[in-house]
């Protein structure tokens, strides 16, 4: 392993790009430690969307007039930015969706319903967010295929020892995993899984919603066939996400949503589909949101994804150490050097919602719940965990404030 | 703030829940979860000889302080009252007893036990179950 460049980012300075931190919560500064669920938005992104609405707003791919051409150019430029961000061979392979969830549903419905049947296996992992689990469970059932699960070790990492055993009794057609676990921060060996999936003749579907904001994503290096992301977790707006798909697979697929824009010819007897990616973009797209996503990608590139990841890993290591010193705290997930900036934990005898409630009164926002990962919670034997997650604007003092808040929760409820 | 929420009476019920346990072969029984927090509550009811009066009521489960404390308070409230009366019990009455400011999300925690009890009575006695409680017992934790 090459030594990681310890590129630095100045979180205190970056924080001033985010207007949300200009307020007090319960009279205290906001410590937002829930970026894994959605990130805050920098002024640069908000300004880009506002400028679009004020100067270029029109529907795309429709009018012949100047505004529509301008809007189309900005929309397609955003598509190119997404393509470059994930190192896609072509921007035509980028489909704008509402978010990663819709992107994964698109694959499950449009590919799964037409390619799965009895005797086929769909393999998901125990670490999946419901967005990459429930669609496969549902589509597999509808198609008569079977769902199989790659389990995790006690440290919350995928146990690949039993892979070949998993493939017995059927044809593996889909392998679906996230690149980074939203619940534990585990970074999954997608390259390895993709190699195995292809050896089985299966497609490899990657949920990068949690990875893209924090970790370099390269679809060609990963060797996957589909990859989904959400803008709102990566400094962009809600309402837009993207699916990257391998061109030949996208071209062979049936559409997902039907309506305007996605057609080639519409006759009463029959309709033919447009070219990719438009075939998958029925109706008016989230245009300003896509422009916002493009601005978010510019912002992340300026800061540097490697610097962001290094910064978050440092914070996670500090948090794991500080939390580990608190009596009765149970930590979940792999060691600091093998995880992203996410720390999941429980405080013995105190329900996560009560911990989060006390922390809120101190201005500290953490997530408490199952993180849309109920199968994983069942594996860990808990109904819920507390989760602190970091981003480029997180600072070490926020870890201190969280630890102080947990002490307070223990005094009140312990 | 946090002190308002976790006032003494809530903490007392949370740490020393009343009516905690299981009634084997209960006359009425239901379980429910709050998928948001993962709170789980099961409630067991034994009727008196008249078949109407709640003679004994117990709950089991796990969850946040609010859900467990409010269910514990509920056990004290419903003891000795009729199934029909509890079916008609407005949620505000329990919330008044709980007596703390609750955000809409935490309201679900506080009302879980009452909803489960209404489902149990509905199943056993056919008492009316308003729309808002329907389906509560059909949610699965995993």
Provide an overview of this structure.
The complex is a heterodimer of chains A (414) and B (142). Chain A is an alpha/beta fold. Chain A has helices at residues 11-15, 43-55, 66-85, 100-115, 134-143, 163-166, 190-199, 219-222, 247-252, 287-303, 305-324, 352-361, 374-380, 396-413, and strands at 24-25, 28-29, 31-32, 94-97, 120-125, 146-150, 171-178, 203-207, 226-230, 241-245, 263-266, 271-273, 329-332, 342-347, 364-365, 367-369, 385-389. In chain A, helix 4 (100-115) runs parallel beside helix 5 (134-143), helix 11 (305-324) runs parallel beside helix 14 and helix 12 packs across helix 14. The longest helix of chain A is centred in the first third of the chain and has 20 residues, at 66-85. The two termini of chain A are 44 Å apart. Residues 1-5 of chain A have low confidence and may be disordered. Chain B is α+β, with helices and mostly antiparallel strands. In chain B, helix 2 crosses helix 3. Chain B contains six helices and three strands, in the order H-H-E-E-E-H-H-H-H. Chain B has helices spanning 2-5, 8-15, 65-78, 83-87, 91-98, 104-125; strands spanning 28-34, 39-47, 54-62. In chain B, strand 2 (39-47) and strand 3 form a beta hairpin. Mean pLDDT of chain B is 88; it is low at 137-142. Classes of the chains: A alpha/beta (414), B alpha+beta (142).
């Amino acid at each position: 392993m090459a030594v990681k460049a310890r590129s630095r980012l100045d979180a205190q300075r970056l924080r001033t790009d985010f207007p949300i931190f200009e307020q007090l919560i319960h009279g205290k500064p906001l410590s937002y430690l829930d970026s894994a669920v959605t990130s805050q938005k920098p002024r640069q992104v908000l300004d880009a969307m506002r400028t679009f609405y004020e100067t270029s707003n029109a529907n795309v791919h429709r009018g012949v007039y100047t505004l529509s051409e301008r809007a189309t150019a900005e929309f397609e430029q955003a598509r190119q930015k997404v393509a470059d961000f994930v190192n896609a061979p072509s921007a035509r392979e980028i489909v704008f969706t509402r978010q990663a969830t819709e992107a994964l549903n698109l694959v499950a419905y449009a590919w799964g319903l037409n390619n799965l049947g009895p005797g086929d296996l769909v393999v998901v992992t125990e670490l999946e967010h419901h967005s990459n689990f429930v669609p496969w469970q549902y589509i597999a059932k509808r198609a008569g295929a079977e769902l199989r699960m790659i389990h995790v070790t006690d440290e919350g990492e995928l146990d690949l020892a039993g892979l070949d055993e998993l493939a017995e009794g059927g044809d593996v057609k889909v392998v679906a995993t996230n690149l980074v676990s939203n619940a534990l921060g585990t970074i999954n060996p997608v390259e390895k899984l993709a190699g195995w999936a292809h050896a089985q003749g299966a497609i490899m579907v990657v949920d990068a919603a949690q990875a893209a904001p924090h970790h370099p994503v390269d679809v060609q290096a990963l060797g996957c066939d589909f990859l989904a992301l959400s803008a709102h977790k990566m400094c962009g707006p809600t309402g837009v996400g993207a699916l990257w798909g391998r061109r030949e697979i996208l071209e062979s697929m049936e559409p997902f949503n039907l309506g305007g824009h996605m057609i080639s010819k519409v006759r009463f007897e029959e309709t033919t589909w447009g070219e990719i990616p438009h075939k998958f973009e029925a109706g008016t797209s989230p245009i300003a949101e896509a422009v916002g996503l493009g601005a978010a990608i510019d912002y992340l590139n300026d800061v540097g994804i490697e610097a962001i990841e290094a910064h978050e890993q440092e914070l996670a290591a500090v948090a794991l150490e500080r939390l580990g010193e608190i009596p009765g705290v149970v930590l979940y997930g792999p060691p600091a050097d093998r995880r992203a900036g996410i720390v999941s934990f429980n405080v013995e005898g105190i329900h996560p919602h009560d911990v989060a409630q006390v922390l809120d009164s101190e201005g500290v926002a953490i997530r408490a719940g199952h993180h849309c990962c109920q199968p994983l919670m069942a594996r860990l034997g808990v109904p819920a965990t507390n989760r602190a997650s970091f981003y480029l604007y997180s600072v070490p003092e926020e870890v201190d404030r969280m630890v102080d808040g947990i002490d307070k929760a223990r005094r009140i409820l312990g | 703030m946090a002190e308002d929420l976790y006032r003494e009476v809530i903490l007392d019920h949370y740490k020393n829940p009343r009516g905690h346990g299981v009634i084997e072969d209960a006359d009425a029984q239901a379980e429910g979860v709050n998928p948001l927090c993962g709170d789980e509550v099961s409630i067991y009811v034994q009727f008196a000889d008249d078949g109407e009066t709640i003679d004994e009521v117990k709950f089991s489960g796990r969850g946040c302080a609010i859900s467990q404390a409010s269910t514990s308070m509920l056990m004290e409230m419903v003891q000795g009252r009729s199934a029909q009366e509890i079916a008609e019990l407005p949620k505000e009455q329990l919330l008044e007893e709980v007596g703390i400011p609750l955000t809409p999300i935490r309201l679900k925690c506080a009302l879980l036990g009452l909803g489960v009890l209404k489902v149990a009575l509905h199943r056993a006695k056919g008492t009316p179950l308003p729309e808002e409680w329907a389906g509560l017992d059909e949610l699965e934790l995993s």
